[in-house]
Amino acid sequence: MGVQRIFALVGLCALAGTSLASFASAGEIAPGDVKIVDGALETPLTDKAGDPANGKQAFTDRKAGNCLACHVVTELQDSYLFHGEVGPPLDGVADVYSAAELRARIVNPKTDLPDTIMPAFYRTTGYNRSAGKFDGKTILTAQQVEDVVAYLLTLKE
Amino acid sequence: MKKFISITSIVALLCAGGYAAAELADGYTKVDPPNAEHPLDELISGYQFRKEGTQATQDDDFENPGMLLLDQAMDQWSVAEGSEGKACSDCHSDDPLESMQGVGSTYPKFTEEGDHRAFRNIENQINHCRTERMGAKPWKYDKPDMLGMTILVRHADRGEPVNVAIDGDAESYFERGKEMYYTRYGQLDMACSHCHEDNYGNYIRADHLSQGQTNGFPTYRLKWQGVGSVHRRFKGCMKNIRAEPYKVGEEDFLSLELYTSWRGQGLPIETPAVRN
Questions:
Q1: Domain boundary assignment for chain A
Q2: Which residues of A touch B203 (CB under 8 A)?
């Protein structure tokens, strides 16, 4: 797939240990090196398998994915108030999409849907007037993307 | 939604008390667009998307916190200030709500003012009067004096349709505002149109998205615990999508103000509206 892995930034990882990752850690694919092909991203962004519990956290947290802003997930309705209705409900989404397709959708939905309102969660370029502290950063870290994918894969009907 | 029967009596009462503001027409929250090229099929006031309690606060002039600033501005109207020792009432008439009729609904626009022809919103026009005619200090954006006087000017046209001109010199501002409205901004990479054109009526988390109309501004917002200008609201929306906002009172937001006003052309003015 021509995807490059970045191993060189080990020393800088400590600095990147916030929810706003500006560069890739060891074993991560950097945002600029991601290649979505036919709506899919086969290679995981990290070496560490996604964790569905952490993914659920990133999915619901307003300061992380805040996916609930736009999507209803019925199984989360008891624990989390206010599910948005801007995007389709994600119940059963794992029956429809593969891990690679879900990963691509989260990393950058605009490669397939140029007009979509859904943000690209793992991209650092192409923004217009991005506010200072977010400039050059991704919304989710590479690991969070993998975690969210793992969580979505639990949504079967 | 249309519970203005009860309001009529309040309005009547207020009129007797000196507030000669236009009455709100029944069902005033929804109108047809001005022409077939307009991007929306129907123009709906933000009022329609708010909860009943919020609407009720707006409907009752005694409960509406924005009315306090109106009261202060009514007093300020006849206070002489600056090197010329003049008050608003020296150039206009003693009754502000009467002399300002037909004014607030037409801004932003070009105003002449001698050599100083420029595209202005109400705030900028007020400051122009202060500095050029009164020799007084300009008021700061979004501070009580400025908000109050802006409310006064708009309130004189309460119930009157938004009526901005987009032709002639204003056209370049209109085009710039339109371009901004459809431009993606910030890390969340969204345009105004994504939320207020494609998704009005939908909830985005806990927020019920409206058409982003400006007919209620300056508006009392529960979240602000105070009144704010339309430019403050633009700034808030840009910050929410993690964008660097433009400067209040300046050309970009003036253009956006003209364009968004036109998107609500014909909607009755509600100033001071109440929102959450």
A1: 25-152
A2: 82-86
Q: What is the CA radius of gyration of chain B?
A: 18
Shortest CA distance from B192: residue in chain A? A117
Structure-token match 């892995």, residue found:
A5
Taking CA atoms, what residue in A is nearest to B206? Answer: A82
DSSP letter at A28?
B
Q: What is the mean pLDDT of residues B13-38?
A: 59
Kindly report the pTM of this predicted structure.
Answer: 0.90
pLDDT, position B78:
97
B contacts of A87 (beta carbons < 8 Å) = none
DSSP codes, A38-68: TTB--S-SSSSPP-HHHHHHHHH-TTTT-GG
Q: B118 in helix, strand or coil?
A: strand
Q: Residue A86 and residue B199: Cβ atoms within 8 Å?
A: yes
- pLDDT tens-digit map of A87-109: 999 999 999 999 999 999 999 99
Question: Residue B72: phi, psi to the nearest 5?
Answer: -60, -40
Q: Which domains can be identified in chain B, with CATH numbers?
A: 4-16+28-63+161-275 (1.10.760.10), 67-155 (1.10.760.10)
Q: Is B88 a catalytic residue?
A: no
Whether residue A129 and residue B243 make contact (CB cut-off 8 A), yes or no, is: yes
Q: How far apart are CA B58 and CA A73, in angstroms?
A: 35
